[in-house]
Amino acid sequence: MIDVSGIHVERNYFRLYNVLIQALSQAQDGKGKERHANDLPFEKQPSVCIARRRGSGYPRGQIEKKILEVDNLSTTEAQIREMLSIIVYAAIDIIVMQDNMVYEQKATKP
Fold first, then answer.
1. What's the predicted TM-score (pTM) here?
2. Is residue 109, in this structure, part of any structural domain at all?
3. Which of 5, 44, 53, 109 has its CA 20 to 30 A from that of 24?
4. Distant-in-sequence contacts of 20-24, Cβ < 8 A, 24+ apart
5. pLDDT band at residue 3 under the 50/70/90 scheme
6. Is 4 exposed, middle or buried (0-12, 13-18, 19+ CB in 10 A)?
7. How many domains would you assign to the chain?
């Protein structure tokens, strides 16, 4: 476990922080961990590896699919869980994009 207690959150952004923490919790403690983690670091889990191989179309397609599913869910709780999954897929896309930037920067250095 990593101690992140030094995170600074402005008072006006606490609700956003809380939602982001809920998305993290769902990924590391909930359905994501149960189905996909296999005790691997997040960036080595199947969804991230697929995104590396397939590109941004994979996480963005998952986001699109989940957006379509949200309105068909019967409870607000289920809708919130699905929306938290969208945040996690957006994070996957960002992680892969950041990794690609680092790789591109290394490839262009003499």
1. 0.86
2. no
3. 53
4. 20/87, 22/80, 22/84, 23/84, 23/85, 23/87, 23/88, 23/91
5. confident
6. exposed
7. 1
Domain that holds residue 49: 11-104
User: Does residue 5 fall inside a structural domain?
Assistant: no
Residue 96 lies in a domain: yes
- The owner of tokens 């982001």 is 20
Q: Which two tokens stand for residue 107?
A: 């490839």
| Tokens read off for 56 | 């941004």
pLDDT for res 32: 62
Domain presence at residue 2: no
Residue 77 has pLDDT above 90, yes or no: yes
